[in-house]
Design a protein that fits this description.
Mean pLDDT: 78
Helix content: 55-70%
Largest sheet: 5 strands, antiparallel
Low-confidence stretches: none
Length: about 600
């Protein structure tokens, strides 16, 4: 007789006992289950609804406090979101009346909620902060407490009912436990009587097999189970030995090394504090690290459109970087902090993440995916904001005394307060030029402050392109003639007008032309060209100066950056302001240059007739 047959025969009495025990367990557990289900059906829904009603009431009270504190828009928006949610939960409660007195308590809650809404509507009508504060404490807060107390009464009523039903269920469970213990003890004693001898005979080969399995689990792939015989345990030992042999071969294979390398690389990216994502060429999520799972709430095992569950603004940034890398344009490097995206990731507030991307290459060298790193620049961005605020404050404070100083120097130079010698006139002229240069720097700083604070207002209108070019060149013509630099311009006939803010755009053109004049030697030329570029209008300012090294081209648009050897007199803000103005018009600004071959600064604007 095989081991299988002996085990089956020995288990027959135990099977009969288990059948009886199972029948008894099914019947008794069904009774207990129905009792527990009744508790859930009757009271749990009401408890959950009243708890949510209380939460929504407290959030509405928080909204009222926001309004009292001066944050009216935030408070109004929050209370508007909470009202329909509370109405929905109140409707759920009204449809789940299960206990005596619950209908009356629900009606009281409905009435209290109506009174609270009326009080809140009256509170919203108050515009004066002191009046809002007074109305909050006089009418809104008592109405809130009344509604909250009504919800608490319903919650307490259902909780008391659940306690009573739980006590009854506990008594039934105790009886069932006693019955089951007796039945299990009887079945166990009956089964052990017939299985003890067989277990003792089977114990030795099983022990040998168990020791071999334990050694294999500890990493000893050379462990083998030596069991003689032809029964099932002996066959299992032979199968185990075969598995151990193949596992040893597998560990020695390149696949094992590959999996180990994959585990090491995963541990490496998980150790990075910044979110890291690996996307396929089709946008599918291939891998993420622990930081990405925590910040972006991504799960690789969820499958499907994983990025579809990310915030829309963040998803747009990820798609843009992925498209850049997968499109074969190389690694993606951000141009500045303005490309950072805000992610609400923790109760302490949002985090600003700056995207970077690098390609993932296949076996034949083609780009098969992109690795995206979202660098946490929250602290750097806050430092940048503090710096901008300080610069704006200092520039604003400089403006008034600088105006007085300019006027005083002008009056003295003109001889209004007395005659001036020739040497004094030279000194005053130099001082006046320095004041004018300082005034230009202050104006640039204030423009930069307005742009970065979002206060830049564009007065867009149809303007003749020829007029824009003439004004920009006329403003620089005197300086160009003094330096011996020729100015010229050409205009394509199909771009007669543009839809722009003329004052702001003349500032951009004047800055680019002025820079070209400064960097062009005598007998050189600065040429401005306007042409159509698909759905865009392209402006180009070309000079014949010394050119810009490649390593400097990416930095000349940064705030306060001055290239080595640049002429004195500026603060390094002109190109930064020009770029912000062009971007505010919906265009882009860039440069094409090489040392010794001059520079061409260009920017694009949407065409007025473009769809």
């Amino acid at each position: 007789m095989t081991l299988r047959s002996r085990l089956l025969l020995a288990q027959a009495p135990l099977v009969l006992a288990l059948l009886l025990l199972g029948t008894l367990a099914v019947v008794t557990l069904a009774r207990v289950g129905r009792s527990g289900q009744q508790v859930l059906e009757d009271n749990y829904r009401s408890v959950l609804a009243t708890q949510r009603i209380t939460e929504h009431l407290e959030r509405m009270d928080s909204a009222a406090l926001f309004i009292v504190a001066g944050e009216r828009e935030r408070g109004a928006a929050q209370q508007a979101v909470q009202r329909p949610k509370l109405e929905s939960e109140l409707a759920t409660q009204q449809g789940n009346i299960t206990e005596p007195g619950e209908a009356e308590a629900t009606q009281r809650l409905r009435a209290a909620w109506k009174r609270y809404q009326s009080a809140f509507d009256a509170f919203l009508q108050e515009r004066d902060p002191e009046a809002s504060r007074a109305r909050y404490f006089e009418s809104l807060s008592p109405a809130f407490q009344e509604a909250k107390a009504s919800a608490s009464a319903i919650l307490a009523l259902n909780q008391d009912a659940m306690v009573r039903k739980s006590d009854r269920l506990r008594q039934q469970s105790g009886q069932v436990n006693t019955l089951m213990v007796l039945a299990v003890a009887a079945a166990l004693g009956f089964g052990l009587l017939f299985t003890t001898s067989l277990v003792q005979r089977a114990l030795r080969p099983v022990s040998v097999l168990s020791q071999a399995v334990r050694r294999l689990g500890q990493g000893d792939v050379e462990a083998r189970a030596v069991v003689e015989g032809r029964d099932e345990i002996a066959q299992l030992a032979r199968d185990f030995n075969t598995m151990a042999e193949r596992l040893g071969q597998y560990r020695r294979s390149s696949l094992g090394e590959l999996l180990q390398a994959q585990a090491v690389s995963q541990a490496a990216i998980d150790s990075l504090p910044d979110p890291v994502l690996v996307l396929g060429a089709d946008g599918g999520l291939l891998n993420v690290n622990a930081a990405a799972e925590a910040v972006l709430r991504l799960k690789l095992e969820e499958g499907g459109d994983a990025l579809g569950r990310v915030e829309p603004e963040v998803r747009a940034v990820l798609e843009r970087v992925r498209a850049h890398v997968v499109g074969g344009r190389g690694a993606y490097q951000p141009r500045g902090y303005e490309e950072a995206v805000r992610v609400e990731s923790s109760p302490e507030g949002g985090r600003w993440l700056l995207p970077r991307g690098s390609p993932v290459h296949g076996e034949t060298g083609e780009v098969v995916g992109a690795t995206l790193i979202l660098q946490d620049v929250t602290r750097l961005r806050r430092f940048d904001e503090l710096k901008n605020d300080l610069v704006a404050t200092v520039a604003h404070e400089f403006r008034t005394p600088l105006t007085s100083l300019r006027m005083a120097i002008h009056l003295v130079a003109e001889g209004v307060v007395g005659p001036v010698t020739e040497k004094q006139a030279d000194l005053l002229f130099a001082a006046r030029e320095d004041c004018e240069r300082l005034q230009g720097i202050v104006d640039d700083l204030l423009d930069l402050s307005r742009i970065q604070s979002g206060q830049l207002q564009l007065d867009l209108r149809e303007v003749r392109t020829e007029d824009l070019l003439e004004h920009a060149l006329d403003a620089q013509r005197t300086v160009a003639e003094d330096r011996g630099v020729r100015l010229s311009h050409s205009l394509s006939p199909d771009v007669e007008t543009v839809h722009v803010d003329p004052d702001r755009l003349q500032l951009v053109l004047g800055n680019l032309v002025g820079n070209g004049v400064k960097h062009t030697p005598r007998d050189g030329e600065v040429a401005v060209r306007v042409l159509r570029d698909g759905a865009l209008v392209r402006f180009e300012v070309r000079d014949t100066g010394e050119g810009i090294p490649v390593q400097e081209q990416a930095r000349i648009f940064e705030k306060f950056y001055r290239a080595p050897g640049a002429p004195a007199g500026g603060a390094g803000l002109g190109l930064s302001i020009a770029r912000d103005i062009v971007q505010a018009h919906g265009g882009e600004l860039g440069v094409v240059s090489a040392p010794g071959q001059g520079s061409t600064f260009w920017f694009t604007l949407p065409r007025p007739d473009a769809d």
